[in-house]
Amino acid sequence: MCAFKDAHSRKIVGYSIGDRMTASLAVDALNNAVAMRASVAGCIVHTDRGSQFRSNKFLAALKHHGLRGSMGRVGAAGDNAAMESFFALLQKNVLNRRVWATRVQLRTAIVAWIETRHHRRRRQQCLGRLTPVEFELIMNPPAAQAA
């Protein structure tokens, strides 16, 4: 799984699930994130130093969308702490709950957890005890989004 988180609202804005962590999977997740946001040009996309994020395919996708790439230093674990925390929660709340008979069942469970639990029910201290969806509604009221 590859996922991108909005550092402001803590919402997972794009993700893709596959058998292996490839450049195509990373590009799919990035395209998913871009589709979820109206205007992304100039945004910074921070990743770890995985080969999929250094690939020509991923770098071309960043350029195509007008995004700026950023990578953590070697051994700087704190750079990716927010995503490591997300993946730990995903493992605890979905992956370790039971044995999954098929990948389709697991994929469905992951998407359901992200969209219902993580975005709409999980209150976060750094957001003033709001969920990511509540925080985005307050920060970006629908009238402002329509203008």
From TrEMBL:
GO molecular function: nucleic acid binding
Superkingdom field: Bacteria
Record-linked Pfam families: rve
BP-aspect Gene Ontology terms: DNA integration
Integrase catalytic domain ranges (all copies): 1-140
PANTHER family assigned to the protein according to its UniProt record, in alphabetical order: TRANSPOSASE INSF FOR INSERTION SEQUENCE IS3B-RELATED (PTHR46889), TRANSPOSASE INSO FOR INSERTION SEQUENCE ELEMENT IS911B-RELATED (PTHR46889:SF4)
Protein name: Integrase catalytic domain-containing protein
